[in-house]
């Protein structure tokens, strides 16, 4: 974020496990009127961050929980600056032992899955803050996560050092807004904070009564950095519009050879398994799957399943898939662009299916394992199944794991069907396009 912009509002995060010796009184609002504890509020997913965000924005959220009947929509759009929506949350890991334990993974780092939840929760709060008109006589907007741009982990995130996530609205269209978030943390050797992860969330606004697209408040960038972020986001928005609605591309004649090359080894596995390359494995043999019934505790303020919860569950399955495939502890590197194609409701039967889509073994010090996770909303009574999300995660293996396992090897993944080969090539080409864009930016 731009250092010259207005200071952000920092919200401290505390553990959600109350001490048995804590006899603090009930939570009160800004006017000191007693209201029910957060644990009894409907429409929220309980985590340390969502608790803290709801406390900080209680008036806005309470209004969204109980909007006025037959209230009119917002009649006049406001113009806001990025600094007006800028919000940060601070994890006091160094002093809050219980909070630290809630976020600790097996390698004394922050659990990435929980961090994905928190990023979505903060982005949602920022979007609500920007779209609010502070007029309690109008009906609030329905704001939903539309997509998440690529997230790249720039460095490991320790659970023993204080962590901060800061974000603000950087771009606004007619009914969509983009929020950029930065995760920063110092190191044990240096107190200066550096960026550990950056993510961009796109939210869309809907009229809470009609469900149709609704206009949102305008954005007026002030600093040079804010203007640059706005221009970059505008370019990404135009690119997404160009891609939207396009049919699945057909492979040109020259690319048919790539398909055939991928399928050649797979045919040997299927037809002559004794002669197959021992350093390769069929894609279908890397699959894992889990299922769940979506519960009320996992819903957001609008009654739908919290997007961060879906990302968390997808990440955990992807991590497990990489772990079983490599035979060593994986190291998360990035998650590619994610689209939320359809909402997931309480009571839905959700199935997550994962596989190793392909591996990149050119760099022996950092082999790459590309995982695909597809979330299906299944309705047995209707005999229907729809894709709600497709996630693409990239992992490597931890250096300490490689040091402990001499002669380790990561297998090459080969498809057995043309459909699998097409998925692999389309993902490879998408990654190549991302790299080319990064080099020309």
UniProtKB/TrEMBL annotation:
GO MF annotations, alphabetized: fatty acyl-CoA hydrolase activity
Domain HotDog ACOT-type: start-end pairs: 89-209, 284-401
Keyword Transit peptide: yes
UniProt keyword terms in alphabetical order: Hydrolase, Repeat, Transit peptide
GO biological process, one term: acyl-CoA metabolic process
Family indicated by similarity: Belongs to the acyl coenzyme A hydrolase family.
Name of the protein in its database record: HotDog ACOT-type domain-containing protein
Source species of the chain: Liquidambar formosana
């Amino acid at each position: 974020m731009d250092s010259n912009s207005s200071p952000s509002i920092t919200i401290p995060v505390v553990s959600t496990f109350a001490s048995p010796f804590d006899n603090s009184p009930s939570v009160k609002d800004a006017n000191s009127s007693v209201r029910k504890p957060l644990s009894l509020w409907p429409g929220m997913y309980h985590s340390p961050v969502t608790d803290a965000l709801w406390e900080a924005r209680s008036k806005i959220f309470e209004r969204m929980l109980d909007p006025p009947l037959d209230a009119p929509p917002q009649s006049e759009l406001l113009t806001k600056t990025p600094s007006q929506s800028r919000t940060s949350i601070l994890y006091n890991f160094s002093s809050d032992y219980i909070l630290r334990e809630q976020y600790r993974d097996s390698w004394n780092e922050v659990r990435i899955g929980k961090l994905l939840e928190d990023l979505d929760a903060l982005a949602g709060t920022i979007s609500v803050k920007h779209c609010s008109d502070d007029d309690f006589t109008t009906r609030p907007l329905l704001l939903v996560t539309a997509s998440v741009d690529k997230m790249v982990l720039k460095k490991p995130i320790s659970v023993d050092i204080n962590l901060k996530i800061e974000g603000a609205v950087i771009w606004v269209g007619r009914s969509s807004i983009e929020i950029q978030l930065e995760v920063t943390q110092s190191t044990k050797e240096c107190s200066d904070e550096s960026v550990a992860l950056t993510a961009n969330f796109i939210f869309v606004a809907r009229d809470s009564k009609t469900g149709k697209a609704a206009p949102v408040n305008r954005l007026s960038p002030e600093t040079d950095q804010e203007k640059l972020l706005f221009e970059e986001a505008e370019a990404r928005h135009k690119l997404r519009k160009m891609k939207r609605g396009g049919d699945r591309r057909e492979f040109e004649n020259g690319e048919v050879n790539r398909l055939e090359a991928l399928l050649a080894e797979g045919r040997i596995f299927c037809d002559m398994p004794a002669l197959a390359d021992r350093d390769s494995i069929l894609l279908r043999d890397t699959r894992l799957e889990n299922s769940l019934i979506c519960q009320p505790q996992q819903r957001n303020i609008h009654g739908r399943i919290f997007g961060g919860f879906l990302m968390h569950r997808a990440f955990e399955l992807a991590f497990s898939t990489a772990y079983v495939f490599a035979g060593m502890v994986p190291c998360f590197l990035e998650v590619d662009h994610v689209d939320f194609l359809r909402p997931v409701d309480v009571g839905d039967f959700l199935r997550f299916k994962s596989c190793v889509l392909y591996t990149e073994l050119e760099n022996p010090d950092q082999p790459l394992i590309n995982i695909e996770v597809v979330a299906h909303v299944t309705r047995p009574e209707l005999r229907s199944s729809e894709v709600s999300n497709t996630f693409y995660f990239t992992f490597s293996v931890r250096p300490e794991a490689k040091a402990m396992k001499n002669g380790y090897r990561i297998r090459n993944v080969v498809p057995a069907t043309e459909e699998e080969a097409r998925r692999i090539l389309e993902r490879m080409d998408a990654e190549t396009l991302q790299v080319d864009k990064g080099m020309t930016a």
